[in-house]
Design brief:
Oligomer: single chain
Strand content: 25-35%
CATH architecture of the largest domain: Roll
CATH class of the largest domain: Mainly Beta
Order of helices and strands: EEHEHEEEEHEHEEEHHHH
CATH superfamily of the largest domain: Hcp1-like
Number of helices: 8
Number of domains: 2
Shape: elongated
Radius of gyration: 35 Å
Number of strands: 11
Helix content: 10-25%
Largest sheet: 7 strands, antiparallel
Distance between the termini: 25 Å
């Protein structure tokens, strides 16, 4: 609501001016509030926000990806000897002696992993005492050795069959002999992904571990029930590994991370072109608006302006 409002007709147009109550948007580019650094770094909450900003936000448990690197001796996908035995989506049933390639099955498994546990690492200690209270001295390190995962199962439960086929390279169902260890172990990567920013940063790997000498130890069970009409089948898998290592710790030390304070927005003032545009920029905001209305009305009413629809009115360029 303006404090003072009035109007008149110029070139047949109603031109109104007024003095507004609020002038906070008169000089946006020069607003001192936009030049302030967000947060008071001297306060406790300010220091906390600064630490979060330096890490570009916090990690989220829903932003992850798993990837399998299978043993070169494994040829996955050949689930049966003939087409009638091997199920698959319409148009993708396998002919005799055909099989899903390892790359296709791996992508399917990696996409269907809906839960995975980040591995732990422990130090084994032994008591040592010379004088005074004893000390627990590390003597070795160990890993939990297992990873729990669950996978969405499609209509054909190909995710379960994938791990069944992997296990078939560990032992023989006919002779019950266990095969060579180096012929079936692979490794598995777990990636933490970014959680904010643009699309490129959102899917950027920010942390990664590799589980070495990995193989499926347990293909878990699940229940069928008439009361589970709206539930999905989750295939539980327990993977055994020997050790894990961090794939990103060296790179993170050299990486460029965030700032302790957020970015201050950059506000650019609109440019005023032309003779009348420069003159109008010197007037108060209320008169600037009225002056622009007069010039626009004149452009439309001058003969050249009528012909060109007001787009060109020599020798004056358009008013910003």
């Amino acid at each position: 609501m303006a404090i003072l409002r009035g109007g008149t007709r110029i070139f047949g147009q109603d031109i109104r001016i007024g003095v507004p109550r609020d002038k906070s948007l008169v000089n946006v580019a020069g607003d001192k509030r936009l030049k302030r650094r967000p947060g008071n770094l001297g306060s406790t909450i300010g220091q906390f926000i600064a630490r979060v900003n330096e890490g570009e936000g916090v990690a989220r448990p829903t932003r992850y990806l798993v990837k399998f690197f299978l043993n070169k001796n494994l040829k996955l996908g050949k689930f049966g000897a003939n087409k009638s035995f091997v199920p698959g989506p319409v148009g993708m049933q396998m002919e005799q002696n055909d099989y899903y390639t390892s790359a296709e099955m791996q992508r399917n498994i990696e996409m269907m992993c809906n839960k995975v546990t980040m591995p732990s690492r422990d130090l084994l200690t032994a008591p040592h005492q010379t004088y005074g209270p004893k000390r627990e001295m590390p003597l070795a390190y160990t890993f939990n050795g297992t990873i729990e995962c669950t996978f969405y199962g499609d209509k054909y439960l190909r995710q379960r069959a994938f791990f069944e086929k992997w296990q078939s390279h560990i032992f023989s169902e006919d002779t019950h002999n266990i095969k060579y260890y180096d012929d079936y172990v692979g490794h598995m990567d777990i990636y933490q992904l970014g959680a904010s920013g643009g699309e490129n940063d959102r899917d950027r790997i920010t942390y990664a571990v590799r589980l070495e000498e990995c193989y499926p130890e347990i293909i878990g069970s699940y229940d069928y029930s008439y009361g589970s009409t709206n539930e999905l089948i989750n295939v539980p898998i327990t993977l055994r590994y020997r050790k894990w290592r961090n794939l990103t710790i060296d790179d993170i030390n050299l990486a460029t991370i965030g700032k302790s304070t957020g970015d201050v927005p950059t506000v650019k003032a609109a440019k005023e072109f032309g003779l009348f545009g420069g003159l109008l920029s010197k007037l108060p905001p209320e008169l600037q608006r009225a002056g622009k209305q007069v010039l626009e009305a004149g452009k439309r009413n001058f003969p050249i302006g009528r012909i060109t629809g007001g787009k060109v009115t020599p020798p004056f360029p358009p008013i910003a």
